[in-house]
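Thread title: Can someone regenerate the structure for this chain?

I was given the following input by a collaborator and told the matching structure tokens would be attached. They weren't. Posting the sequence so someone can regenerate them.
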Amino acid sequence: MSLREIWSGRRGKRTGAASPTSRSGTGRAGSGPVVQMTGICMDFPGGRALDEVSLTLHAGEVHALMGGNGAGKSTLIKVLTGVHAAADGQIVVDGRSRTFSGPADAESAGVTAAYQETFLCTNLSIGENVMLGHEIRGLLGIDWVRTRQRAGSVLAELGIDDLDPRLPLSGLSPASQQLVSIARAMVSAPRVLVLDEPTSSLEAGETARLFQVLDRLRSQGVAIVFVSHFLEQVYTISDRMTVLRDGRVVGEFLTRQVERAELISTMMGSSLQALQEIGSQRRDHRVEPSDQPWYRAIAVAQQGALEEVDLEIYGGEVVGLAGLRGSGRSTLGRLLSGASRSDSGTVEIGGQAIRLHSPAHGLAHRLAFAGERRRHAGLIEELTVRQNVLLALQAMRGWRTPVARGEVDALLGHLLERLDLDAGAADATVGELSGGNQQKVLLARWLAIRPRLLVLDEPTRSMDVAAKVHVQAQVAALAREGVSVVFISSELDEVVRLSDRIVVLKDREVIGEISNGPGLSVDTIVEMIAADRDEF
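Best answer:
Regenerated them for you:
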């Protein structure tokens, strides 16, 4: 497997049994569908989320559910798994009409799910997590010997028997924890497995292992619903796809028969012109800096995480950080913004040497860091959008000087409009929003302080194509307004499209810096990362 294939999520030929699509040309593997959802409608206080949606799932088929933020994907799978009760429509499982009163009811009908957030218990063992809620009981309570044996059998059936059920879950990587989550879902031997963004935090090699597990499940006749914003992965693993937009089905395709441009146009309701325009705007904006950099990092480092780095940043410049996960790119972003404290080195702002001791210290200099783990270190889901957006601004001013209500309303109205968020969402709790809209709220928080330097770490993670276009357009707009942006992304096409310069990291150190231009491509960066150390 080439590095280029790994980066884009390709795995070459699928392993295991031939897919239903290749066997029959229709994607159907059996006498009839496992699930038929017909005319599904779902209403929320803000409007209709699903409008006459139909979905058909077949045994031994991976069915991708595609669409933008707010398209209705999450709502549809919550109806399928019993989290929501549809206002209208019918769900037929194995020829029998079903009404689910909850997830347990759906599971008893053979429908279960594994989500992007694994909801596992890190204080328990692997086997205990796999069998949670399905422990085997004896006369004296739980029979832990038989329970662990059953967990081992489930792991073996999925081809991941290298995971010892007796070991603590806390020692596993996020990728392995995702596999444990799937194993837990498979304990009840479901007919249908729903996977919601299962690869969002995985590297390419980890994703390949997950796909091997899915191939095995497909060969066993499980119907799989696969929700992902990674187009290459969808094309790699799926047999069929249904596209939602604004709560309606706008297309159903055999994966092998639909071109990527057609799929994106169907999802967005427009062509790729928006992305092309962003690239053109960034090329027109790019100028070689002639003045002095306003920000200079000198030999900043963090023991065990990043070797010494020197970096200059100019006003209105987008500096891309490229590298594999663990290369040190996120650590560098945190050190530049003050989100983490460096062990050595200094930072100069406007020619004045300072030490960034804390995030508050960085905030005082209008340095902001928006990390990829928005739920753990960013947003507070129990607070409203309004409250989350104001946190950084209020922290800057001090809690004794509350931001005036009129200023809040004006600021929030401007930011919501700029980030294409519904004005009515201001008083909704952040936990109610989709992942893409949560990311926009986090971005709005930092725009509220009018930053001089904004570090964005995976800002488009878990976003659909339309939302990615909007966020990338905002990065370009910020640069035109004179804001310096450090842009970190695993999707190198984003880095190349937006950056003036690209700093490449590998093995926790900077291995080179590239000035962007017509000759630069994703392949250039991939080859640089893959090369032996002596070549650069």
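The chain has four domains: 3-110+191-269, 119-189, 274-366+451-535, 380-443.
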